[in-house]
Design brief:
This protein is an alpha/beta fold. It has helices at about 15-25, 25-35, 80-90, 105-115, 130-145, 165, 190-200, 225-235, 315-325, 330-350, 375-385, 410-425, and strands at about 40-45, 50-55, 60-65, 125-130, 150-155, 185, 205-210, 240, 270-275, 285-290, 355-365, 365-370, 390, 390-395, 395-405. The chain has a domain at about 100-330: Type I PLP-dependent aspartate aminotransferase-like (Major domain) (Aspartate Aminotransferase, domain 2, 3-Layer(aba) Sandwich), CATH 3.40.640.10. The chain is globular, with a radius of gyration of 22 Å. About 45% of the residues are buried. The structure holds pyridoxal-5'-phosphate. Pyridoxal-5'-phosphate (PLP) binds near residues 158 and 160.
């Protein structure tokens, strides 16, 4: 009888780290070595991500509750049975990536389903491989349709590492690449005065994450996005919502910009960009969806933005199943309920540890815990991991840790996360010199 081939754990952790260091990225390998974690991913299931081996010899592997979900890639957790079923069905039916130059059944069906779910008259969808590419496309479309160059984004923004997307990011992501004098202008997030001063007849687009994630789970004041919409209308500027992390039910509504941030504030941007959760954790797919008038850009050349592996037909089929699941009213009600429980628990922790926590903020199942200094914020990530919570700090606001559990999480899992956070906080050193990695 043939033995099932071992795929996860075919090599020892030590060998994998060595290979990674030699062939992928030695600086990343030494970063994790320094932290002292055996941070090679092993098995994963529903809410859990296990490391391959223990941190030290003889120790069991870390078994972590996934509160990172790679920013929403694992909105449905790991190994969701319906998604695995769709993946197998798609392969058995003969789907593959498909040829992006041809007319595609799966791309059409997914785009139609999205048009039914997206806000207002956003009804056209173009496919990409990753979020950065889809943001690039959004910014290209805005420049082409307006024939203007200036792009306004937020100071601490993160929109991806590709060309135009990078331009809209905070400077720490782009200075090393000698980003030159640019058409990109950055403003403090949530400040209407700041944007009013720079938006003008030369502006092509305003792009914001609805809740800046890397920027520290920032919550704009009520009315901010509605006013941004008015300013854009007034100056003929394209409004782009980056819903890569906040879309697809994360806030308890399908779209944060359309009722997920403030129940009664339903803003319709001109373009919405999605990625991460569109993959359902398996097949990378990103989308740039826009209002019909923007389609004019393709009038003279329908092949202006092409992506050989973007919008894989197999991926589209899987994505359609994911949308079926997350768009059910019961599913979104569940996210709202879990969100309330999580919010209340985090606020309790804030009260209990008011000496180090200065704020907790978020929506639905997207939350930030802000500490009173940046060092503590970063080190708390280590304390969370030691206590079985997989989450990390916000790269552009290091005093804040970000918690984004899968949307399928249940009350008992929320209790377990809160219990583990409580322990991590109680173990947390009160003086800087006691901090241990
Ligand atoms: C808000 C936001 N936009 C865009 C991106 C870029 O997506 P990708 O990593 O798929 O290129 C990210 C990735 O983290 C993101 O968080």
């Amino acid at each position: 009888m043939s033995q099932k081939r071992k795929i996860i754990g075919s090599e020892s952790q030590k060998n994998i780290v060595k290979m990674y260091s030699t062939y992928v990225n030695k600086y990343k390998a030494s970063f994790f070595k320094k932290l002292g974690f055996g941070i090679v991913q092993g098995e994963r299931d529903r809410f859990h991500v296990k490391m391959l081996e223990g941190t030290r010899k003889g120790q069991p592997p870390l078994d972590l509750i996934d509160c990172r979900t790679t920013g929403g890639v694992f909105n449905l957790g790991h190994r969701h049975p319906e998604i695995i079923k769709a993946l197998k069905e798609g392969i058995d039916a003969g789907l593959d990536i498909g040829d992006h130059h041809l007319i595609s059944e799966q791309r059409s069906l997914l785009a139609k389903q999205m048009a039914e779910l997206l806000p207002g008259d956003i009804s056209k969808t173009q496919y990409c491989v990753g979020g950065g590419e889809a943001i690039d496309l959004a910014l290209k479309l805005a420049r082409a349709i307006t024939q203007r160059k200036k792009i306004i984004s937020a100071n601490r923004a993160y929109h991806g590492v590709t060309g135009f997307a990078l331009g809209a990011c905070a400077s720490n992501f782009k200075d090393i690449f000698l980003w030159g004098p640019s058409d990109f202008v950055q403003v403090p997030f949530g400040d209407i005065n700041a944007i009013s001063k720079v938006i003008d007849e030369d502006t092509a687009a305003v792009i914001f994450e609805t809740i800046p994630a890397t920027g520290g789970i920032l919550i704009a004041p009520e009315g901010y996005f509605a006013t941004v919409r008015e300013l854009c209308d007034d100056k003929g500027v394209i409004m782009i919502s980056d819903e890569v992390q906040t879309g697809l039910g994360r806030t308890g509504e399908l779209w944060a910009i359309f009722g997920g941030l403030y129940e009664h504030e339903k803003v319709v941007p001109d373009i919405i960009v999605l990625a991460k959760g569109m993959s359902a954790g398996y097949y990378p797919i990103a989308t740039c969806s826009y209002k019909p008038f923007i389609e004019e850009v393709f009038k003279d050349d329908p092949f202006l933005h092409i992506s050989s592996t973007g919008g894989s037909e197999l991926g589209c089929y899987v994505c359609r199943r994911m949308l079926d699941i997350i768009s059910q009213p019961k599913f979104l009600e569940h996210v709202r309920k879990m969100g309330r429980e999580f919010r209340d628990g985090l606020n309790e922790l804030k009260k209990k540890y008011s000496n180090i926590i200065v704020d907790v903020r978020g929506r639905g199942l997207m939350w930030g815990i802000e500490f009173n200094n940046e060092v503590y914020g970063q080190v708390f990530t280590v304390y969370m991991i030691k206590n079985g919570i997989f989450a990390d700090y916000c790269g552009n606001n290091k005093s804040t840790n970000k918690l984004m559990p899968p949307l399928i999480i249940e009350s008992e899992d929320i209790d377990e996360i809160l219990k583990r956070l409580d322990i991590a906080l109680s173990e947390y050193p009160k003086k800087k010199k006691e901090v241990q990695m």
